[in-house]
């Protein structure tokens, strides 16, 4: 089980990313637009740098919904391999059977 603080930090980052997504996209569009003047593009970059760092989508990390584990994460199920194996063994995931031979 991951630390509660790490799980809460990821939730906080996800909220910030959602909150500032529109603003970041607009500023990035201005900053990358070749038809704008150099000053306009530069001021857009400065405004982008003023936004909170945790509002950037690249700072998000996938974590297991059940345990908070950051490694071995299955995107399709949004859980880690360990939690997936447990749920599969208990028959809680439809169509998944633990193989044995």
UniProtKB/TrEMBL annotation:
Ribosomal protein in keyword set: yes
Quaternary structure and interacting proteins, as annotated: Part of the 30S ribosomal subunit. Contacts proteins S3 and S10.
GO molecular function ontology, one term from the record: rRNA binding
UniProt-listed SUPFAM superfamilies: Glucocorticoid receptor-like (DNA-binding domain)
Stated name of the protein: Small ribosomal subunit protein uS14
GO annotation (BP), single: translation
GO cellular component, one term: cytoplasm
UniProt keyword annotations, A-Z: Ribonucleoprotein, Ribosomal protein, RNA-binding, rRNA-binding
InterPro entries in the record: Ribosomal_uS14, Ribosomal_uS14_bac/plastid, Ribosomal_uS14_CS
Keyword rRNA-binding: yes
Pfam families in the record: Ribosomal_S14
Protein task: Binds 16S rRNA, required for the assembly of 30S particles and may also be responsible for determining the conformation of the 16S rRNA at the A site.
Gene it is expressed from: rpsN
Organism of derivation: Falsihalocynthiibacter arcticus
Similarity-based family: Belongs to the universal ribosomal protein uS14 family.
């Amino acid at each position: 089980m991951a630390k509660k603080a790490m799980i809460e930090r990821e939730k906080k980052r996800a909220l910030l990313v959602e909150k500032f997504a529109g603003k970041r996209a607009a500023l990035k569009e201005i900053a990358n637009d070749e038809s704008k003047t150099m000053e306009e593009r530069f001021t857009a970059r400065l405004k982008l740098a003023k936004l909170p760092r945790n509002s950037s989508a690249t700072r998000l990390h996938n974590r297991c919904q059940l345990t908070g584990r950051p490694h071995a994460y299955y995107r399709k199920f949004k859980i880690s391999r360990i939690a997936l194996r447990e749920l599969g063994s208990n028959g809680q995931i439809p169509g998944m059977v633990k193989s044995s031979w």
